[in-house]
Design a protein that fits this description.
Layout (H helix, E strand, L loop, with lengths): L1 E6 L6 H10 L4 E3 H11 L1 H11 L12 H8 L3 H24 L5 E5 L3 H4 L1 H4 L2 E6 L2 H11 L4 H11 L9 E4 L6 H13 L3
Parallel strand pairs: 1-3, 1-4, 2-3, 4-5
Helix pairs in contact: 2-3, 2-5, 3-5
Length: 193
């Protein structure tokens, strides 16, 4: 099976592209959603995160305290990298198991951190979704109760992830057709030159 990684910074539209390929009949794995699920349901992972971040990492109902965790990791790059060093391998193992159950010859994985997660090196191809900075900022502010500064901080934290010379670029600027770009990118995978 060929794995295609769909990536892009916060607010770029990678989730929209992932949903499009899913609607076109291809399996699509959302690394961010699965990371959240694993952090709430994998007891071994929870124990490691509590050891790293303290008891405040989980609320009394046993669910991840996302605001506490975000406040800690986005204020301390070293802590963020340590947390990602715990979570990314768990997600990667879960993704591998998911791929093993697929009947398709092509699968997609959506991730904001292709290098840090190690998925970029395992992929047959990488699709880089991008949009102008101001469009991205407005999208994120609209969907998440984040300030402009918080969004820009998240963008800065992800900045080094997108030096992808070989990636297929998809522009999500609200002017170009995403469907046409995804269809063209799929065609290049199915019928390479």
């Amino acid at each position: 099976m060929k794995l295609v990684v769909i990536t892009g910074g916060i607010g770029s539209g990678k989730s929209v592209v992932s949903r499009l390929v899913s609607l076109m009949g291809f399996p699509a794995y959302d690394c961010d959603s699965m990371a959240k699920w694993l952090m709430n349901n994998d007891e071994q992972l929870k124990a490691r995160l509590i050891a790293l971040l303290g008891d405040g990492a989980y609320s009394s109902d046993g669910c991840l305290n996302r605001s506490y965790v975000a406040g800690r990791i986005f204020a301390d790059d070293g802590l963020r990298l340590k947390m990602n060093g715990i979570v990314h391998p768990a997600v990667k193992n879960h993704l591998r198991a998911w791929i093993a159950t697929s009947q398709k010859s092509l699968a997609f994985a959506e991730t904001a951190l292709p290098h840090e997660s190690g998925l970029g090196s395992e992929a047959h191809a990488v699709w880089m979704v991008d949009a102008p900075v101001e469009v991205r900022v407005q999208r994120v502010m609209k969907r998440s109760a984040m300030t402009r500064q918080q969004v820009l901080g998240r963008m800065a934290a992800q900045a080094g992830e997108f030096d992808l010379d070989e990636a297929i670029h998809i522009v999500n600027d609200n002017r170009q057709s995403l469907i046409a770009q995804v269809a063209e990118a799929l065609q290049s995978l199915m019928c390479p030159d």
